[in-house]
Design brief:
By secondary structure, the chain is α+β, with helices and mostly antiparallel strands. Helix content is 33%, strand content 20%.
């Protein structure tokens, strides 16, 4: 990978030649997970399931990597996206140690809060804080969204009793947020000129909540499948999302 880009299968052949006593698939997986790599452009295009071409990051950056990137600056970038958050949240997101020292070093660039459990939460000093009495808008998140994965304590977004919705990632479902909490899952089924967005609530919704979810789902379908006939279906709690 140091000298060329390629498909995963090609790297498997290289791994088999270089390490004949090892599982080539495991070797390639180690390369892709442990080395700084990327999928070369064009990538991330809608409805493009072509195989990714992998490359080392450096040729695309045009500069050497900075292994000593300051943890303090990484904390600032994290908090801009996910604050307020604890040092445990930061470690869960990054898998890196040293966050207590980093937030201490940031000094008055941060402000602190204490949550209901007595834990210290950090945020940027200039970051706006949402009004707790203001309802959060309905959102349909993508599968495996970082909003669900970037905190050690997921109770802020996954309420008690919604564990099944979180486990649904195994079946490639995506979460529905109502008032900022996971309240259901959905999946889009495009087939035969029709796009069906099927939603399974995790609890009973009010009439207003159902209307808001339906409107957000219709907007998402118009974006995802503009050429297909849209259909939004809100099913019963615990129903099978598959048509």
């Amino acid at each position: 990978m140091e000298s060329h880009s390629g498909f995963r299968s090609g790297f498997g052949e290289c791994a088999a030649q270089r390490y004949p006593d090892r599982d080539p698939g495991a070797v390639v997986q180690t390369w892709l997970y442990q080395l700084p790599v990327l999928q070369t452009p064009p990538r991330g295009r809608w409805k493009d399931n072509s195989r990714p071409v992998w490359s080392r990051v450096q040729p695309w950056l045009g500069a050497a990597l900075e292994p000593g990137y300051p943890l303090t600056e990484l904390a600032v970038r994290y908090l801009r996206a996910f604050g307020p958050a604890s040092t445990g949240d930061m470690q869960t997101w990054s898998k890196l140690p040293g966050w207590r020292a980093a937030v201490t070093a940031l000094g008055d660039r941060l402000r602190t809060y204490t949550d209901e459990r007595g834990r210290t939460l950090y945020d940027l000093a200039d970051a706006p804080l949402a009004d707790p009495d203001r309802p959060a808008p309905v959102r349909l998140l993508g599968w495996y969204d970082n909003a669900l994965l970037s905190h050690q304590d997921r109770a802020r977004i996954v309420p008690e009793g919604a564990a099944a919705a979180l486990r649904s990632y195994a079946t490639m479902l995506s979460p529905v947020l109502v008032d900022g909490f996971v309240a259901g899952v959905y999946k889009v089924f495009p087939r035969a000129g029709r796009a069906r967005l099927r939603i399974v609530p995790a609890r009973a919704w009010t009439v207003a909540e159902r209307e808001q979810v339906a409107a957000e789902a219709a907007a998402l379908l118009a974006f995802l499948e503009p050429e297909l006939t849209p259909s939004v279906e809100i099913l019963d709690v615990g129903a099978d999302v598959r048509p």
